Amino acid sequence: MLSREQLVHPAWLRATHWLNAIAVVLLMMSGWRIYDATAFLGFAIPQGITLGGWLGGAIQWHFAAMWLLGVNGLLYLALNLLSGRLLRKFFPLSLDSLLADVTSALRGSLAHDDPRHYNMVQRLAYLFVMADSVLLVVSGLVLWKSVQFPLLRELLFGYEGARRVHFVAMAALAAFAVVHLAMVALVPRTLLYMIRGR
Amino acid sequence: MAIKTTPRLAIDGDAVLKEAILRISHADGANHTTRRDFLRRSLTLGGLTMLTGCTLVDDNSVASALMRISRMNDDVQGWLFDPNRLAPTYPDAMITRPFPFNAYYGEDEIRQVEESGYRLEVTGMVADKRKLSLPELRAMPQIDQVTRHICVEGWSAIGKWGGISFAHFLRHIGADLHARYVGFKCADDYFTSIDMPTALHPQTLLTLSYDGQPLPPKYGFPMKLRMPTKLGYKNPKHIQAIFVTNTYPGGYWENQGYNWFGGS
């Protein structure tokens, strides 16, 4: 076990993590209300879990929270890169240890002795959520400004393609959040680390 | 597909709560209330309190903060807007058929504007304040374009509009091109306004035709302003009056909370 003095997460990481979490919740709930205006995938999301009340209100929330995710998300990525945390915590990746970690996770015996060390499943999950968030922001830019960002628009299969990419990336982020919260519930002290840092 | 969204009603949480308390106390005073009665009414009060809990997002300070951010987003969009960047155009084969109808009212309430008496009124910061007839407008140089119409609801459809370059029209009537806004008043009581850079964009058309035919009533006869660089609600139909101004004119949906710039 680690001593009380050892820091698991520095303050900048905790702050940006929680701000990202707030932004994602606001964006997701308001985004669901925006989706419901057409429900183009054939199902509607219950209004009770959406934000904004009506389409115009939901868009206002969405286009306010996007600044929080955009600015704070960039800060999160930049500090991770510049501090060397990204390289230190998430690399190298190894397929063998991934398979070993997945096997032990399924057997319920994945080690969590040192919270400062991420196992291969965690590394991939957190790297995935970073990449997925970038995809959400980029596809969101295409939906907002499809004329002004022609290169991004073409990369994401046009305006209609970007709509679907944005939705699927949202669903992947929601799936990550479910697993993430389940893991926190299984190992509750990780929540304390993310709040107090140690 | 039609816009059926009801504008959010502002609920005054305090007033609702006060009334609920008043009602309960009245009921209590008038009758010898049973415990069950009281509980039942408390439940109603609880429901109302929950309602005010929901209206956390309707709270005036939150609403005005969101509106301020939306106005800030107008500035950001004005800055992002490239007056020379063109929206993609498509071959005729890609036109969406039938092209969807959309308005703040249903398809059974489409306004019928008579061609004979119709005059387009031009006012505000223009040299030539006068009324233009449809034959006069049809005599001006016409262009066609096939572009994607993107609705604020998310859907999009490709259509073919023809008419007068709006930049050409504004110069023709001697509009002050340094003015900030161009506003529109429509025969269906709709109104909206746009920024001057978008008004002067090469793809902004004062359209008189749809798919080679005179603009049908459901697409806005006798004329619609078509901008592939803006969302659908920024494209007014049944235009009766155009005015050039420096005073922010707002719009039908914009005044209720839709973003004013509404650009793609």
Question: Summarize this, please?
Answer:
The complex is a heterodimer of chains A (198) and B (264). With 198 residues, chain A is mainly α.
Structure keywords:
heterodimer; A: mainly alpha; Fumarate Reductase Cytochrome B subunit; 71% helix; globular; B: 264 residues; alpha+beta; Sulfite Oxidase, Chain A, domain 2; five-stranded mixed beta sheet; 6 helices; disordered N terminus
Walkthrough of the structure:
The complex is a heterodimer of chains A (198) and B (264). With 198 residues, chain A is mostly helical. Chain A is 71% helix and 0% strand. Chain A has helices spanning 11-36, 55-82, 85-90, 95-106, 120-144, 150-155, 158-186, 189-196. In chain A, α1 (11-36) runs antiparallel to α2 and α5 runs antiparallel to α7. In chain B, α1 (13-30) packs antiparallel against α2 (35-54). In chain B, the strands form 2 sheets. Chain B has a 5-stranded mixed β-sheet. In chain B, strands 3, 4, 7, 8 and 9 form a 5-stranded antiparallel β-sheet that branches. Residues 1-9 and 24-53 of chain B have low confidence and may be disordered. Chain B contains 6 helices and 10 strands, in the order αααββαββαββαββββ. Chain B folds into 2 domains: 13-58; 89-256, Oxidoreductase, molybdopterin-binding domain (Sulfite Oxidase, Chain A, domain 2). The A-B interface holds A 34-35, 37-38, 40, 51-57, 59-61, 63-64, 67, 144-148, 150, 159-160, 163 and B 1, 5-8, 57-58, 65-67, 69-70, 73, 77, 80-82, 85-88, 148, 150, 152-156, 228-229, 253, 256-259, 263-264.
